[in-house]
Amino acid sequence: MNHNWRIKRQYYNLILQGKKSLEVRVGYPDIKKVEVGDTITFKEYSNMKFEVIRIAVYDDFPEMLDSEDSKKAIPGETKYKALEMYQEIYDESKEALGVYVFELKRNDTKIITLSSVISNHKVFGKYANAAYLVTDELCTSYPNHFNWYWEKQIPRVLNGTGEIVICTVDNNIAGVAFLKNDTTEKKICTFCVMEEFRGKHIATRVLDTAFKFLETTKPMITISDYKLDMFEHIIKKYGWVQTQVMEIGYYNNDTREIVFNGQLPNK
């Protein structure tokens, strides 16, 4: 969940510069709803998101300042000056609500489409290879994944009938989607979010970009039977409809493929 807070410009700039990593609030109802893993935006200035990586709760400001590094909360001020500043902002009745400390980490999330970097061969090659490597484990479920990726999917990007969407967080690949959009199919061929980035809204970011390329929120997609539970939320969110069940052996000899929003040809 994302929460939008107000903050003075000078403190927002310090967060951007990495000098301020602690944001201190008192226990208003909306503050108590924030959980580790949520994100904070200060939309008065930008839509940049900061991930909440730690929450600590204290009875009052003195206890908080004895436990936390005040310079990470109010850079350039002593602990005693920080106490004075907080107690000027919050009277005793508000301090009695509890003092909440949120440790923030800048969440530098980017969406890259492979077609957008075709003109730069080095960058294109870098992202094409990186997108393959994070899906390499799919070769166990889809034995022809390597050949399919380099012989079919990359040429589709080059001729405009395909796309590769890559989401990065702090320069690490968090999720990818391999797409096909030609006269025969609008299809998500491959879609995955790396395990360490799940639950951080990466799927939504990738799918929103995918839907723009495919011009539909209900493209054809096949999901291995053992992954259905993992995709249950996405299936319900976008109203995907099961349209076909392929027998074991269509892609591999271990799982059935469940088809949504379309039909695969029989072999």
Provide keyphrases for this structure.
10 helices, single chain, seven-stranded mixed β-sheet, 267 residues, five-stranded mixed β-sheet, alpha+beta
Q: How does this model look, in words?
A:
By secondary structure, this protein is an alpha+beta fold. Helix content is 34%, strand content 28%. It contains 10 helices and 12 strands. It has helices at 9-16, 29-32, 61-67, 70-73, 79-89, 92-95, 121-134, 145-159, 202-214, 228-238, and strands at residues 2-4, 22-26, 39-41, 49-58, 99-107, 109-113, 162-169, 172-181, 186-193, 220-224, 242-246, 257-260. The strands form 2 sheets. A 7-stranded mixed beta sheet has the order 6-7-8-9-10-12-11, sandwiched between helices. A 5-stranded mixed beta sheet has the order 1-3-4-5-2. Helix 3 runs antiparallel to helix 5 (79-89). The protein is elongated and about 75 Å long.
Précis, in short:
The chain has 267 residues and is of the alpha+beta class. It has helices spanning 9-16, 29-32, 61-67, 70-73, 79-89, 92-95, 121-134, 145-159, 202-214, 228-238, and strands spanning 2-4, 22-26, 39-41, 49-58, 99-107, 109-113, 162-169, 172-181, 186-193, 220-224, 242-246, 257-260.
